[in-house]
Design brief:
Chain lengths: ~300, ~725
């Protein structure tokens, strides 16, 4: 029988054999984790990740796409593990990606790949992903200049859900005080709060500002707010263009093209640790064409303020 | 002039069409806006089959999700309703004691849902005494508090250790964020039914950093359900044993007030940052009008009381991006009390009869630690769970004057243990492909060690189509009752009782044809081995586990019951589901076929009694502004009667429909008024009765009308 100079590891006796087997397993696992075909189909260049089939964020995606024609758009499914794996594959070699919407931003963060520039996130505080967050709101100084100058309001109510927008509420309070406008928080935690707090707040304010909040996406709640404000002859101010069609007096909107421009500029200096909020300078003013249109009536008219 | 005006005006139909189209377009536009909400805020996530958030297209199982919207549209009141009216192969058979679940051809009399894992937010509700988990009123969670219900078909207990031979029902409750403010629902109607549920929820965030939020929420609820139950007039049958104190043996006839039910509950869910607490308590007491176990008929003294409390503390923490740890500790208490009146003047001379009184006190204490690690295309889940269980059971006979019957008291205290270690890897090498491989090792007392693998391949040729190949094994350890209960008068223990095991192979397809239409289908084969059943000892050699009688011999055990591994069940079948949802319409249809055959020692294979091969369900709902009208129906195919009754026909083969109308208005605060008509056509369907009943068929509930109002303030 020829001498076996290097016996197979698994035939080695005792503790050495166990250690060797464990080492082999660890090695195999490391190889498995490290050499799986991540990014086989990846390519360099800007990448935009967004949820597939969602309409509201597609305008941001289009605006980004126009300014970055070479960008690849990766549509996600809404399943976090699958989306994370997909982003890992698609962004190999990419240093910055643009994530549109909170779910896409969350998946981009979980993928732990490139730096993230996020758009279309109502409240960045509720997403863990580090990166730059392009605000959904126009520059708040401009907002309060408009409120004070055009609407002649010195005391406004800011309507929001504390569970979804407390941090945004604090930012409005701070920005309002800087501009000499008193911001009264109108927190809507429930249907009962809506009835009590809107009716209670209206006599004490000159206008109502409506945060991008679940409250305005509930048809009954929005209708109630609009009707009560009309009854009290107080204007309402929203921050989504469509709100002007739904009876809100005026919408002050951060235009998608301005948001895209700001995002591209910010991507030159990405943030990998912590979060940074970025305001959009341009502001579009959208009003209902006819005064006194119903809650679902009228065409919107857009005006643009100079950045 | 008039003529010219008429000529220049468009026809009335055109005006109407224009108005409708314009209104429709405007409403459609508005509707599109209101659907944007989910785009700007993070989706609510839940942990389902794999203990982490995932989409139905990805999950390694066939699943049905019943949403909050569907619960409200169709007026589902219990999980049993959901299984009957909305699942794709599960069903529930109600015998006026409990709602007993079956799935895809598998149903066993006196099973008490021991083979289906029922969870509340991932917390197992199967108690240790007999693994029982109720899916009706005794679940003590009204569906008011439920966000959605996940029905998982087939054995998927990889991460839970066992018990899910039929599958999993995971009930996800709402929280202070999704159910904010105060809410009161009051309902009343037929048979003295009354229900009140009050809840209060609040939520918010805390922290000084405007770019980092920490969430808190709290939801507390309490309620009470009562019903006097249906007045029954059952067919008269001479059962050959006394069913009244006069010694009469005619079972049946009119009875009233025996079908009653009472169920108060308390519920609390709260979260602050990484920490959360979930607690529930209450009891359900009800009469058993069909007089099982040879008890007296129509007395109202035969009652069941299920009292349950649990509290679970949980910690979910992100150690780093993609690396999370979850830990939970829990304590469950289950108290059971059963009273069965017997007209028996022989056992205790001088007494007309007695009450059999059984009480159990179970405690289940345990914890779990779970780690998830995500790296690139890999997602690893691993962890372990341990439970220590104690069971105390007392039984005895009590005379009608309250005095204990001499020599009848039995008391047993038995401990049990359950531990499981599990690991699962999800690898997504391509957009179109996911591979899931996992395994666990569980050790139980009673029972022994078991290993269970799971393998799944999920192929997604497009984003709307998902094809899954699934293989899994599951097991159910014997319950403490099955292995340990011994009165040596009717039952003996079996210390050698082994676990049941099931293996299942399945092909499942999910197709989201459009934003409005989704279809799903599956085909499966499974084999359940070592089925635990009560066996009547026919000869001393039948006794297992080395058990001997109080006199030291096996001969004295002949005629008593012992739980043994006594059969295999092979089942196969297929199911399909179609769902449609538009702005105003919602419709669904489910159909399932499954055949299960039981092989027992030395006997030819036979169909499982009480299990229908065909199941169907469907519903249509229409909403217009403040009005919603819905009809839901389910069909139960013929159910073979219990084989001990000589196969005299079948039960089942009935269609039951429910109607719901809702009107939403505002009386200062939002108010929704509901009208429910259950068993709309008052169909006199029957379900197969287990051998503990004197008759082979039991009637389903008749028509019941309920009127309720839900106020949010």
């Amino acid at each position: 029988m020829p001498e076996m100079r290097y016996p197979p590891l698994l035939l080695m006796p005792g503790p050495r054999r166990v250690a060797s087997a464990a080492a082999r397993c660890a090695l195999a696992l490391a190889a498995w984790m490290g050499t799986s075909p991540d990014g086989l189909d990846a390519a360099s260049g800007p990448v935009i990740v967004r949820m597939g089939g969602r309409g509201a964020t597609s305008t941001l995606s289009s605006a980004l796409g126009e300014k970055l024609p070479e960008a690849r758009i990766v549509e996600l499914t809404g399943d976090l593990p699958a989306d994370t794996a997909r982003i890992s594959r698609e962004t190999r070699g990419v240093s910055v990606l643009f994530a549109i919407g909170p779910d896409a931003t969350e998946a981009a963060g979980e993928a732990r790949g490139p730096a993230v520039v996020a758009l279309g996130v109502a409240n960045p505080a509720q997403v863990k992903t580090p990166g730059i967050y392009v605000s959904m709101y126009p520059n708040l100084d401009r907002v309060f200049e408009y409120v004070k100058g055009t609407l002649k309001a010195s005391r406004v109510g800011f309507v929001f859900s504390p569970a979804k927008n407390r941090e945004i509420g604090l930012q409005f309070l701070k920005a309002g005080s800087t501009q000499g406008v008193t911001v009264v928080p109108v927190t809507i935690g429930s249907s009962g709060d809506l009835v009590r707090d809107i009716k209670g707040a209206l006599p004490n304010v000159d206008a109502l500002l409506l945060a991008v909040d679940p409250v305005v996406f509930d048809p009954q709640s929005l209708e109630f707010i609009v009707q009560e404000a009309r009854s009290a002859n107080k204007p309402t101010v929203g921050f989504l263009e469509d709100l002007a069609r739904l009876g809100v007096t005026v919408s002050l909107v951060a235009r998608p093209e301005d948001a895209a421009k700001a995002a591209i500029a910010a991507s030159a200096q990405p943030v990998l640790i912590g979060k940074k909020r970025l305001e959009v300078e341009g502001m579009a003013v959208v009003t209902a064409k006819k005064a006194g249109d119903g809650a679902a009536g009228g065409e919107a008219r857009r005006a643009q303020t100079t950045p | 002039m008039r003529r010219r005006l008429l000529e220049t005006r468009p026809p009335a139909w055109a005006t109407l069409a224009a108005v409708v189209l314009a209104g429709g377009a405007r409403t459609l536009c508005a509707q599109d806006f209101f659907e944007q909400g989910k785009d700007y805020f993070k989706s609510e996530t839940i942990e389902g089959v794999s203990k982490h958030a995932e989409a139905p297209t990805e999950t390694p199982a066939t699943v049905t999700l019943v949403t909050r919207d569907e619960i409200e549209r169709y007026g589902f009141r219990t999980v049993a309703d959901v299984l009957n009216f909305a699942s794709m192969g599960n069903f529930s058979l109600g015998d006026r004691r409990y709602d007993l679940a079956g799935s895809r051809g598998l149903f066993l009399f006196e099973d008490f849902n021991t083979r289906i894992l029922v969870m509340l937010n991932g917390h197992s509700l199967n108690e240790p005494w007999s693994n029982f988990a109720d899916i009706g009123r005794a679940m003590l969670v009204p569906l008011d508090l439920v966000e959605r219900i996940e029905i998982v078909y087939g054995p998927s207990a990889l991460l839970y250790g066992g018990y899910s031979l039929y599958g999993i029902v995971n009930v996800i409750t709402r929280n202070g964020s999704s159910m904010p403010g105060g809410r009161v629902r009051l309902t009343g109607g037929s048979w003295g039914t009354g229900e009140a549920v009050a809840s209060w929820g609040a939520s918010g965030t805390y922290g000084a950093d405007p770019l980092v939020s920490h969430e808190w929420n709290v939801l507390a609820a309490a309620g009470y359900y009562r019903s006097d139950g249906e007045d029954l007039d059952l067919p008269r049958v001479d059962v050959g044993y006394p069913v009244d104190l006069a010694g009469g043996t005619i079972w049946g006839g009119p009875q009233s007030g025996t079908d009653f039910e009472r169920a108060p509950f308390l519920f609390l869910q709260a979260r602050r940052g990484d920490f959360s607490i979930l607690a529930r308590g209450g009891y359900r007491k009800r009469g058993t009008p069909f007089a099982p176990y040879g008890a007296m008929y129509g007395t109202g003294d035969q009652t069941l009381r299920d009292e349950k409390e649990f509290v679970e503390l949980r910690w979910d923490h992100a150690l780093s991006a993609g690396f999370n740890v979850s830990a939970r500790a829990f304590h469950d208490v289950y108290h059971y009390h059963e009273r069965d009146p017997y007209a028996d003047a022989v056992t205790y001379p001088g007494q007309p009869g007695y009450l059999f009184d059984l009480r159990t006190r179970d405690h289940d204490t345990g914890g779990e630690v779970r780690l998830t690690y995500r790296r690139g295309t890999h997602f690893l889940t691993g962890g372990g769970e341990y439970r220590y269980r104690t069971l105390g059971q007392e039984s005895g006979n009590v005379f009608f004057d309250g005095a204990p019957a001499p020599g009848s008291g039995i008391r047993q205290d038995v401990p049990g243990r359950f531990g499981v270690l599990y690991a699962q890897e999800e690898w997504r090498p391509l957009d179109q492909l996911s591979l899931v491989v996992g395994g666990n090792w569980a050790h139980t007392e009673p029972g022994s060690g078991k290993a269970q693998p799971r393998v799944a391949v999920v192929y997604k040729p497009s984003t709307t189509l998902s094809i899954k190949g699934l293989y899994g094994r599951g097991f159910r350890p014997p319950s403490i009752f099955e292995a340990s209960y011994a009165d040596y008068q009717s039952q003996i223990p079996n210390p050698a009782l082994a676990s049941e095991e099931i293996s299942s192979s399945e092909l499942s397809v999910l197709w989201k044809a459009s934003r409005r239409v989704a279809a799903q289908a599956y085909a499966f084969r499974s084999r359940l081995q070592g089925l635990i059943r009560g066996v009547t000892i026919a000869s001393p050699s039948d006794v297992e586990g080395g058990v001997v009688g109080p006199g030291g011999s096996r001969e004295e055990l002949v005629g008593l019951l012992q739980y043994q591994s006594a059969g295999d069940v092979k089942s196969s079948g297929a199911g399909a589901s179609l769902r449609f949802q538009s702005r105003r319409w919602h419709a669904y249809a489910n159909a399932a076929y499954a055949s299960a055959r039981l092989s027992t020692r030395g006997a030819p294979a036979e169909r499982l009694s009480g299990s229908p091969r065909w199941l169907g369900s469907g519903g249509v709902s229409f909403s217009s502004r403040d009005w919603t009208a819905s009809v839901g129906a389910h069909y139960v195919g013929p159910e073979p009667l219990d084989s001990s009754r000589g196969r005299l026909g079948a039960a089942g083969d009935f269609l039951e429909a429910n109607l719901r109308g809702s009107y939403r208005t505002r009386l200062v605060y939002p108010v929704t008024v509901h009208l429910d008509v259950l068993n709309l056509f008052d169909r006199a369907g029957t379900v197969a009765a287990s051998p503990v009943y004197a008759v082979p068929r039991l009637p389903i509930e008749g028509r019941r009308i309920l009127l309720g109002a839900d106020v949010r303030f």
